[in-house]
Amino acid sequence: MSKILFILVMIMGLAVFGCGEQPDQSADTAADSGDAGVDADSHESGSGDTEDSGDRTEARVVDEDSSDRRGDRTAVAGTFDLSTPELSVGQWIEFGADDLRETVTISVVGTEVNQGDECLWVQLSGPDFVAQILMDPSGLDIAMEGYQEQMDVFFADPAAYIRDNMADAEGMAGMMSNEDGMEMALEFVKAIRMVKFDQGGMAMAIDMTGVPEFLEEMMSDPSFQDTFQEGFMQGFNEEQGQEGLDEIMTELDNMDFAFEAASVEAGGSQVEGIEFSLNHPDVEVTVVFSSELPIIPLAYASFFSAEDNESHTVEVRGFGFSGAENLMPGEPAQVIPAMMFLQGMTQQMGAQEGRSAGIR
């Protein structure tokens, strides 16, 4: 993969997971999608057989001086909707990449009350692995609101966003370590209550109780922010990341960012969504989001590098609103507190700092 393509992919990720400055051109919040989608009576790995169920709501771009009211939000040019139908047991979505036969499936396979909240077990599975995450859906909604707002900022004017926030490693590090960026990350961590995984045929679990409070206290320490930024900048520069950023800043005027309504095939069915594309003489990127899909709104993504004559795609191979299979039913054989690891790491780091101070 060419350096410019790699940096662009990373920039799109940071645009969502970081928290940059608002460019001059802004966009209102994206529109909610109505109840729509595809249902399947059963889920078979690798199958894209699905049935239409209910009416679909067309996702589209409208003029900036007009709006289409759907619920309590407004569809505006250049915005993307990260919302999906309400999570419920049975939903599943399967992704594949390039021409590989192996796929990864994300599904909702059960419920459990944790700390007084009704939570959902979200399962990730592939040919050689299976893991489950106990998520608080209301907490996840709060976290996604922040990511939706950040995505709106980025897609309102991608070129301006990149110039304002990503000209150098220091700016990129600042995106992730500023107060808003850390709050977004913390909200997401708060929504994760437990992680269950298979270890030698035995289900093990890590309890996340206390982790958000621990991280919040750590992130509030100014020295942590300084250490994080220094570490990020050092690693980024060692990988010649700044060289790639300089190239992108030079090439921004040659990049064309576009938005349009799109209808794409996802798992054998047509879904409506919005397409974001980036075109450059050496690089082409296309991403399609659809709120008709369960769990994850990503319908399709493609990346092409003319420099390397290399292309990659990620696409939905199948999805449905029922039929998900629980591959790790029952209670885990052992539950390990995540705080035990974090406290051990903190003590070890403190001891190392003490030894370093003694040497000086």
| Helical residue percent band | 25-40%
| SS class | alpha+beta
Poorly predicted segments: 25-42, 44-78
The coarse silhouette is: globular
Radius of gyration: 22 Å
Mean pLDDT: 77
Q: Structurally, how many domains make up the residues?
A: 1
Strand content: 25-35%
- SS elements, strand count: 16
**SSE sequence, one letter per element:** HEEEEEEEEHHHHEEHHHEEEEEEH
Strand arrangement within the widest β-sheet reads 11-12-13-14-15-5-6-7-8-9-10-16
Largest beta-sheet details = 12 strands, mixed
Task: Provide an overview of this structure.
This protein is of the alpha+beta class and 360 residues long. It has one domain (3-359). Helices cover 34% and strands 30% of the residues. The chain has 9 helices and 16 strands. The strands form 3 sheets. A 12-stranded mixed beta sheet has the order 11-12-13-14-15-5-6-7-8-9-10-16. A hairpin with a 2-residue loop joins strand 11 (256-266) and strand 12 (269-279). Helix 2 packs across helix 3. The longest helix has 22 residues, at 338-359. The relative contact order is 0.20.
What would a concise description of this structure say?
It contains nine helices and 16 strands.
What are the defining features of this structure?
single chain; 360 residues; alpha+beta; 12-stranded mixed sheet; two-stranded antiparallel sheet; 16 strands
